[in-house]
Amino acid sequence: MIDLSEIPVAKPAKGSAGKTGTWRVLRPVIRYDKCTRCRLCIMYCVENTIDQEPNLYPKIDYDYCKGCGVCAQVCPTKAIAMVPEVK
Amino acid sequence: MMFLRGNAACPGCPIPKELDALLEVTGKKTVLVVPASCTSVILGDTQGGQPSTVPVIHSAFAAAPAIASGVAASLRMRGEEDATVVVWAGDGGTGDIGFASLSGAAERNENILYVCYDNEAYMNTGIQRSGLTPYGAWTTTTPSGKKEFKKPLPLIVAEHRVPYVATASIAYLNDYQSKVRKAKSIKGFRYIHLLSPCPPGWRFDAGLTVEIAKLAVETGVWPLYEIENGEFRLTSISKVLVDKSKRKPVEAYLRYQGRFSKMTPEEVKALQDYVDKMWEEIREMTKK
Amino acid sequence: MLVQKGKVLALVGNHAVAYAVKQAKPQVLAVFPITPQTTMLEKLSEYIDKGELRAELIKVESEHSAMAAIFGAALAGPRVFTATASQGLLYMTEMIYWVGGQRVPLVAAVATRAIASPWSIWDDHQDFVSKRDAIWVQMMAENVQDAYDITLMAFRISEDPRVMMPVMMGFDGFILTHTMERVEVLPDSVVDEFIPPREFKLIDFDNPLGIGAVATPDNYAKYRKKAMEAMERAKSVIKEVMANFEEITGRKQYGLTECYMCEDADYLLVGMGAWVGDMRVAVSRLRERGKKVGLLKIRVFRPFPREEVREALKGRKGVVVFDRAYSFGSGGVLSLEVKANAYGLTTPIHTVVAGLGGKDVRPRDIEGALEDLTEGKLEEERWLA
Question: Which of C68, C219, C223 sits opposite B66 (nearest CB)?
Answer without folding.
Answer: C68
